[in-house]
Design brief:
This protein has 10 helices and 2 strands; from the N terminus they run αααβαααβαααα. The protein is an all-alpha fold and about 260 residues long. It has one domain. The C terminus is likely disordered.
Length: about 260
């Protein structure tokens, strides 16, 4: 094993993640359909913050602080040991990223289904998140009990570190960038209110409404977060709720 503290690789990784997310949002929100969805979520954010302040404000702010602290611990104390800028085949970079995401999603599926939706204490912990009922919006991604925030983020990092140790060598920075961007953005997208059931946005719309179906109550499936493969495999795939397309979206479709 050849692990050492590579601060430069970690710094470039952090900068690349921030740059990619900012640039992607800048480009995507130039698309009218995405800009409309963003405005809908912003409006819901303001409404919930105003009308449901006791439920949201404390939980969201606490979740943000704990999430930031957990990420800082990983990026400053752990990431530099498991990352490298040494050349790797492009196929290996993609394979490492794919495996991390899929293995993480398997363990998250188990955690979500049997721990958070079980019968013990952690069901009550997860019930904080399920105060957000269909239809959910972007702010609901951060309506979390502190323990759920720590468990969710730490599980992703634990899988990443464990796979690196099993491989016996650091991951290429590009693999970490891909996995982190996909992990964070899909978790955010899952909780967005999106009404774009027309070409070419059906896939994004489907991702959002499938997780929205999970939020109808505490007895629904769709437990995985990156892909619903494991829900399909284990018989917990939940059908989405049929929603009427809002007039604005119908108008776009008609065009």
């Amino acid at each position: 094993m050849n692990f050492h503290y590579d601060w430069l690789a970690a710094l470039l990784t952090i900068g690349s993640i921030i740059g990619i997310v900012v640039a992607a949002k800048f480009v995507l929100f130039r698309v009218p359909a995405f800009a409309q969805a963003r405005d809908v979520n912003k409006a819901e954010h303001k409404r919930k913050w105003r009308e449901l302040g006791k439920k949201y404000q404390h939980r969201v702010q606490t979740s943000q602080k704990i999430g930031l602290l957990t990420n800082l611990v990983f990026f400053l104390l752990i990431l530099p040991f498991i990352i490298t800028l040494e050349p790797r085949p492009f196929g290996r970079i993609l394979l490492d990223a794919f495996l991390v995401l899929m293995i993480y999603d398997f363990f998250y599926y188990l955690t979500h289904r049997f721990l958070f939706h079980g019968k013990g204490y952690f069901r009550r912990v997860h019930a904080v998140h399920h105060q957000a009922r269909s239809r959910i919006s972007s702010i609901d991604a951060q309506l979390l009990h502190p323990l759920e925030t720590i468990i969710g983020i730490s599980l992703f990092y634990l899988v990443t570190v464990a796979m690196c140790l099993l491989a016996g060598q650091p991951f290429h920075a590009a693999s970490i960038i891909i996995t982190y961007v996909v992990f964070t953005q899909i978790n955010q997208l899952n909780h967005c209110r999106i009404d774009l059931p027309y070409k070419p946005f059906q896939t994004i719309n489907w991702i959002a409404i499938m997780h929205d179906a999970h939020h109808i109550d505490m007895h629904r499936g769709n437990y995985a977060t990156i892909t619903l493969l494991y829900d399909w495999m284990f018989g917990t795939l939940e059908k989405p709720v049929v929603q009427e397309m809002p007039p604005s979206a119908a108008g776009v479709d008609a065009q």
